[in-house]
Write a structure and sequence with these properties.
Number of strands: 0
Order of helices and strands: HHHHHH
Strand content: under 5%
Structural class: mainly alpha
Radius of gyration: 20 Å
Length: 164
């Protein structure tokens, strides 16, 4: 009963979270595509833009970290079920707690390390070489992915516990 109420109340929040994270992931994919096509076209005509390689790298970093967070939406990441299938049933039940606890601890580590990185990049006024972007914008991908990952672990526990 309580779990059903929690599912009902949290559904709009998770719908918004999923739409925003999916839109950002799609935006990074489209962004990489456009920048790489620009780079290829520039090389073909003999006038390549120096900023394309750097921008592709930074968009790719955002894409990877978004993917890490999104991958835990349905418990699709970091699972090794081969061993669980041969172990006694009690280990299968306990594995959910180990999986959840270990995953959340990992994301909390990512969050703290990412925030420390952003603070360091901000304090040192780091900028990218060609585009002169503030590097904290790139470092922001780490704590952002950690928060998305933690929320998606809770989402998978609420809606897809059977998959775990």
């Amino acid at each position: 009963m309580v779990l059903e109420q929690l599912r009902d109340k949290s559904k709009p929040f998770f719908n918004i979270l999923n739409k925003v994270s999916d839109a950002l992931a799609a935006l990074t994919a489209v962004g990489i595509f456009i920048v790489v096509i620009w780079q290829i076209t520039g090389r073909l005509i003999g006038n390549s833009a120096p900023w394309t390689e750097e921008l592709t790298r930074y968009i790719f970093i955002w894409m990877i970290f978004l993917g890490i967070g999104i991958g835990f939406r349905k418990g699709e990441s970091a699972r090794v079920t081969v061993f669980l299938n041969v172990l006694p049933k009690i280990f299968k039940k306990l594995s959910i707690y180990f999986y959840t606890g270990g995953t959340i601890l990992f994301f909390l580590f990512m969050l703290v390390a990412g925030i420390n990185l952003i603070i360091q990049q901000g304090n040192m006024n780091e900028t990218s070489t060609v585009l002169a972007l503030p590097m904290w914008l790139i470092g922001l991908s780490i704590p952002f992915a950690a928060v998305v990952g933690i929320l998606n672990v809770f989402q998978s526990l609420l809606y897809d516990i059977d998959l775990l």
